[in-house]
Design a protein that fits this description.
disordered N terminus, 4 helices, globular
């Protein structure tokens, strides 16, 4: 696994993101509540990070995610996403 030219993201991040998007799409089609989908994905991500990263690195990832929320970066996603239960 190699980093991008800025040294930020693994080259397979796009592929992993596509797989996750398909899994989300499938779960929504199965009528699983969005909060349940999100909670399961977050729990799985935390479990994976716990097995492969040190606590400080996990905290940095979580701080980055929190910064994205607080800075309004997610507003773009909200505006472009189709409405779902709990999405507003």
């Amino acid at each position: 696994m190699q980093l991008d030219p800025q040294g930020m993201a693994p080259e397979d991040l796009s592929h992993a993101g596509s797989v996750v998007d398909k899994a989300i799409e499938y779960m929504i089609e199965q009528k699983i509540a969005p909060i349940s989908v999100a909670s399961a994905l977050l729990g799985g991500a935390l479990g994976l990070m716990a097995r492969s990263m040190k606590d400080q690195a996990i905290a940095n990832v979580l701080r980055s995610a929190l910064h994205s929320v607080e800075s309004g970066e997610l507003d773009e996603l909200r505006q472009s996403a189709p409405p779902t239960a709990g999405n507003g």
